[in-house]
Amino acid sequence: MFAVRMRVGRVMVGVLAAGILIGGCGGPDQAGAAVIIDGDVVPLEAVQSQLETALSSPERVAALNAQGGGPADVARSIVGREVIHDLLQRRAGAEGITVSDAQVDTRIDESGGADAALASTIYDLPALRSRVRDDLIATALAERSVGGLTVTADLVAATSRAEAERTAQILQAGGPAAEALFGNPQTSARGSVYDAVSSPEAAGTVLFGTPVGGAVAFQPDQRQSTWIVFKVTDRRTDAPFDQAAINAISSSQKVTIGERLLQPDAQRLGVRVNPRYGVWDPITMRVVADDQPPGIILPPAGPSER
Which region holds residue 148: left if phi is over 0, alpha if psi is between -120 and 50, else beta? Predict the structure, then answer.
């Protein structure tokens, strides 16, 4: 059973960490809004201005084309970053996190300086500094939360979207029907435990953003029929941990973890993307094309304990 749990668990974490999953919700009908977060509007003009800056360099356009991307992909990235920025600002205010200009300067210098950073990004200098500030806030959130954090989940495999959705609903509801899902150890695993310090790649996924009692279903590879369904059954913040291991987590992993901690905020506040850009994906927390099939996230059937 342990081996089965490790196989299913690794598939789940590997896929989530790679950012393959997709999902979303409907967009706003308000004219002039690129995205609305809890009533706050990011205007179309702001996104368009950033898009024009991003596409003003022939080198950037050539690099995008070489990677199979285009203006629509850049626009989705910009809108997604606006959502993350808004959520980070809210959380920083609530938790008293501040980032000074000197800290931003230091981080940019550590990465090779502003000129080097601007040459390899789609940002102008103000947008670059804003992104670095966001990354520092996300890092602070991760460092405050990752120590002692573990999540336990029950996992079940399904062979179609319809079966995965039914399985997620059964898992969410609990009871004898849910227990019956675990009769085959080749397609299920109970009590898989993921530790944020020792598995930072898992801590940056929807697994760690889902509350106790919540159920999620996703398709690891759209070219295959297999779906993975899980329900979070426990969440601890007092597990033993090694401070040295936290220090060993990379800066990029800390940023990803900090942003994942915003998942409950996004679901609570509501994120509505203008359909011209796509849809908000609550699983990978980015904007994706609206023709991509969504994953399934079900909230706890009752009030969550944690």
Answer: left
| 63-67, 85-89, 166-170, 258-262: the lowest-pLDDT one | 63-67
Tokens of residue 239, six digits: 């597990």
pTM of the model: 0.85
In SS3 terms, the chain reads as CHHHHHHHHHHHHHHHHHCCCCCCCCCCCCCCEEEEECCEEEEHHHHHHHHHHHCCCHHHHHHHHHCCCCHHHHHHHHHHHHHHHHHHHHHHHHHCCCCCHHHHHHHHHHCCCHHHHHHCCCCCHHHHHHHHHHHHHHHHHHHHHCCCCEEEEEEEEECCHHHHHHHHHHHHHCCHHHHHHHCCCCCEEEEEEEECCCCHHHHCCHHHHCCCCCEEEECCCCCCCCEEEEEEEEEECCCCCCHHHHHHCCHHHHHHHHHHCCHHHHHHHCEEECCCCCEEECCCCEEECCCCCCCEEECCCCCCCC
Distance CA 110, CA 247 (A): 17
- Identity (one letter) of the amino acid at 166? R
Of 138, 140, 246, the C-alpha closest to 198 is 246
